[in-house]
Write a structure and sequence with these properties.
Its EC number is 3.1.1.-. One of its GO terms (molecular function) is phosphatidylcholine lysophospholipase activity. The chain is an alpha/beta fold and about 210 residues long. The protein is about 45% helix and about 15% strand. The chain has nine helices and seven strands; from the N terminus they run αβααβααβααβαβββα. α7 packs parallel to α8. The radius of gyration is 17 Å and the shape is globular. The chain starts with a helix and ends in a 5-residue tail after the last helix.
């Protein structure tokens, strides 16, 4: 009886999570149906809202075809559910993934987050084993500073994933966003979570070398 209830609840949660993002994912697909050029190599940036609200990604990297398929509020499990629509659809040569931020906030354990990220990685490699995957570390923020130890633990585990596979890279945005032992105060919008242009300038300076 208990097992059946657990299965039912998990299934219900999965359906709810998927339906919650259906509209946003559909809008992303419709947008790139008109922009995506299959004759050119593409680079996908995907993950939660720190990617979604990076509005000038294409302008930052004009020599590349950039697909920004970030969707706000997502967790790793959501990206896993929409891997086909948000990543594989564009046959990318490289994928930048930012997930884990919302997962920690929602009390998921770092090892469970890594398990889901591994499943995303496996799906990408199954489609194209030559794809390069860049994991962007969880960022520090004013709003979630109290969770910093869990974020740092997740980042260590994420970096460790890349040690034995040359197709995997880890980029640290955590330390560049710090001022000594504290997070920088002037790189966020009013909510203390999402970044302003100064924050994205830090990300750009760190990430630019990983695109080539």
């Amino acid at each position: 009886m208990k097992t059946s209830l657990i299965i039912f609840l998990l299934a219900s949660f999965s359906l709810h999570a998927q339906s919650a993002f259906n509209k946003e994912v559909k809008a992303i697909v419709q947008k790139y149906d008109s922009l995506y050029d299959a004759s050119q190599e593409s680079i996908v940036f995907t993950g939660s809202s720190s990617i979604r609200v990076w509005k000038d990604l294409q302008e930052r990297f004009p020599e590349h075809q950039i697909i920004n398929s970030g969707f706000g509020g997502s967790q790793a499990i959501d990206l896993l559910q929409f891997t086909d629509e948000l990543i594989l659809r564009y046959h990318p040569k490289k994928v930048f993934i930012y997930e884990g931020d919302n997962d920690i906030q929602n009390k998921k354990r770092p090892k469970d987050i890594i398990r889901t990220i591994t499943a995303i990685k496996d799906s990408i490699f199954k489609e194209n084993p030559q794809t390069e995957i860049v994991f962007i570390s969880a960022k520090p923020s004013l709003a979630r500073w109290k969770l910093r130890r869990k974020y740092k633990r997740l980042n260590r585990k994420m970096e460790k994933m890349t040690y034995t596979d040359g197709r995997l890279l880890y980029v640290d945005v955590w330390n560049p966003m710090l001022d000594g032992r504290k997070v920088k105060q002037d790189i966020f919008v009013e909510d203390g979570l999402h970044m302003n242009p100064k924050g994205y300038e830090i990300w750009y300076s760190v990430l630019k070398d990983y695109l080539n």
